[in-house]
């Protein structure tokens, strides 16, 4: 006897059950757009091994690291389409072709809705002819192999605090946007306290620092400095 099962890990916007690895492609699940389409499994989302190159120097033991880089990622979606007629089957494939005719699409999977990849469909595998129930594969090329958080992480300093700590939970180097707002000359000082801002500094756990302003400025010395000083610690690779 055959037993039917239904994965209840995710539901569509209409309330219908979706496979746990269903693909939301540019904001919409493919299951919700094509009747009879269903994701069977997905591969290529696992941890990616870096390409590492080393070189030997003279008679020195071991080797030295030359470079480390992460290659592009290929995500393969295995799907099923079951149609009631030849016409419905052809229309399903026509619609699938229209959906996949994009570049650099946002790819979110139902079992990880808070992360997304950026991928471009590169190969749509052939399927068995002469039937309205087929299983096929779609390959997505992710030239950027990393996945990103759907929501941005914003941190604001509490009122009266002179520092704020940013906790980064990612697994790869990140480049945050740092912003500091100073009171303009035309704004009343009563709105922002004394209004005399000496400097602001951003630094990480390694001691690298980005400092804007002048730490020697003292409150009350209005217009003592016409320009702010920008100090940047940057190591140029090329």
Layout of strands and helices, then pairs:
Elements: E1 10-11, E2 17-18, E3 23-25, E4 28-29, E5 37-43, E6 51-55, E7 64-69, E8 73-82, H1 86-100, E9 105-109, E10 112-124, E11 133-142, E12 148-149, E13 199-203, E14 209-213, E15 230-232
Antiparallel strand pairs: 1-2, 3-4, 3-9, 5-8, 6-7, 8-11, 9-10, 10-11, 10-12, 13-14, 14-15
Explain this structure.
The N terminus is likely disordered. The N and C termini lie far apart (67 Å). With 238 residues, the protein is mostly beta strands. The longest helix is centred in the middle third of the chain and has 15 residues. It is 6% helix and 34% strand. The strands form 4 sheets. Strands 3, 4, 5, 8, 9, 10, 11 and 12 form an 8-stranded antiparallel beta sheet that branches. A 3-stranded antiparallel beta sheet has the order 13-14-15, with no helix packed on it.
Sum this structure up briefly.
The chain has 238 residues and is mainly beta. The chain contains one helix and 15 strands; from the N terminus they run E-E-E-E-E-E-E-E-H-E-E-E-E-E-E-E.
Which structural category do the helix and sheet elements fall into? mainly beta
Biggest sheet record: 8 strands, antiparallel
Secondary structure: number of strands: 15
- The H-and-E topology, N to C, reads as EEEEEEEEHEEEEEEE
**Helical amount:** under 10%
How large is the share of residues in beta strands?
25-35%
Number of helices: 1
- Mean pLDDT, nearest integer? 80
